């Protein structure tokens, strides 16, 4: 951690507050020198959550433009600052989202908080552009079991959406998804299903019924139906989710094979974390139902194997591929044996090249 502790002797008339809790701060980041903390725990949490990615970006943003700068130059400074602020919003949003997909709710909080503060600086309080940050904070708090705090963030987001009829379908689907998550976590299943149905409606209107985005609502609904012991409905939704992700990953992999292109960066970290979490959830639900569905498990394992092949983890891809192959052979009509065998050959070949240091 390059951001070391430095106790402050604050000049008179200045007040430094903690980046995470806004309490009086006495510790300064020696990297950017513009970020402060009330204790080392908050400094370490912020560093792990987001600060290490944005440390050098913060200094020019939090340093006032010199008063003596001429008008034209001042406008240039403002334009540069706005560009950096927008970059900061996107980095913090993407980081928080990835950590949430990884179920790392605690580390998602600092990134989500920075996203909200940065968006407020750029767009002002009550702007629709703040909604994604409120939803990230709500999801992180739901994951941590802080339901009252999550409810407050969702209320803020809902108020903005209600007063702004121009809100996009994307914003509306994200709002309903998080309301669904909150009600599911508090076991108000009927209300949860109502909001998740709205989530699926808005997501499908924007992205289509067979989109991986829409699948996020399906898997949350499947979890609820599973808890209600409505296994047929839960497995039907899981099959839809597994098919959609399988087709999506197959298209990406096939495109790279056809174009003889490298698999490096074929899928970004956030989507990889989302796919892994979703498909693992399908497997976990299937393993708990009274009647097993080997073809569904083979489909999910094959999708996961493709995911890790795209992520250049060839050993993991081969392991999941072998599991998928064994499951597919339990149901001869599954139709997955040949593509799984091709994937295994590719994983073993690429793994062999990696072991010998060849690209």
Automatic annotation (TrEMBL):
**Domain MYND-type, first and last residues per copy:** 18-55
Q: Give yes or no: UniProt keyword Zinc.
A: yes
Organism (species): Paramormyrops kingsleyae
Q: Can you say what this protein is called?
A: Zinc finger, MYND-type containing 12
Entry-linked Gene3D superfamilies: 6.10.140.2220, Tetratricopeptide repeat domain
Which keywords accompany this UniProt record?
Metal-binding, Zinc, Zinc-finger
**SUPFAM superfamilies in UniProt:** HIT/MYND zinc finger-like, TPR-like
Q: What GO annotations for molecular function exist for this entry?
A: zinc ion binding
Work out whether the entry's keyword set contains Zinc: yes
Please name the InterPro entries in this protein's record. TPR-like_helical_dom_sf (IPR011990), Zinc_finger_MYND_domain (IPR053248), Znf_MYND (IPR002893)
